[in-house]
Amino acid sequence: MKEQDCAELATFLEKVDHSFRPTLSSRIEFRSFAVKVLSKGVVLKVVDEDKVVAVTIFYANDQVEKTAYLSVVAVLDECRGRGIGKRLVAEVIQMSRSRGMRRITVQMNPENEAAVALYTSLGFRMCGKPNGDHVRADSIFMDLSLSRSLC
Ligand SMILES: CC(C)(COP(=O)(O)OP(=O)(O)OC[C@H]1O[C@@H](n2cnc3c(N)ncnc32)[C@H](O)[C@@H]1OP(=O)(O)O)[C@@H](O)C(=O)NCCC(=O)NCCS
């Protein structure tokens, strides 16, 4: 893992922190979070003219439950509404499927209309709360089945 990648991710998360309810900084420390996700998860970024404008972070390594977890998707304020978030999550779906995952889950604040619209547009549906350390009391969950029909 490169020092520069950690710094770049931490800087991006600081820029979008105000968009999350509760804020990311109220529950994570950016630097150590960046170190963790860059070593254990998958981080995809969209760069425009040398500037990171969007990031998604997900895990697709649960070989028991075969469930991927989408941890973060965020687009800079000024770049929203152009399909960037949707393209990133579509890539998460494709990569999770190619890594053998059968399902993707994501949690969000119930008032986050943009997030609900984004995931719904890609086929995600509301689902119950799973168990796990990552579950926040104030969240709703959505999931997408990645199983393919054979007929
Ligand atoms: C949620 C977020 C990533 C969406 O990114 P985006 O690039 O603006 O979204 P897109 O332009 O790809 O839009 C995807 C779909 O969501 C819909 N959508 C996007 N923002 C919306 C909004 N504010 N209200 C209603 N629908 C919205 C779009 O109409 C589009 O639907 P369609 O494909 O059926 O036309 C962005 O608003 C963001 O970074 N928010 C702050 C961080 C956040 O809340 N992340 C999600 C936490 S789980």
Stretches where pLDDT falls below 50 for ≥5 residues? none
Q: Please give the CATH class.
A: Alpha Beta
The chain-level mean pLDDT equals 95
CATH topology: Aminopeptidase
The backbone outline, from C-alpha atoms, is globular
Ligand list: coenzyme A
Give the number of DSSP strands: 6
Structural class: alpha+beta
The string of secondary-structure elements, in order, is: HHEEEHEHEE
Percentage of residues in DSSP E strands: 25-35%
DSSP summary: helix tally: 4
Rg from alpha-carbon coordinates:
15 Å
The CATH homologous superfamily is called Gcn5-related N-acetyltransferase (GNAT)
- Strand numbers in spatial order across the main sheet: 1-2-3-4-6-5
Measured distance between first and last alpha carbons:
43 Å
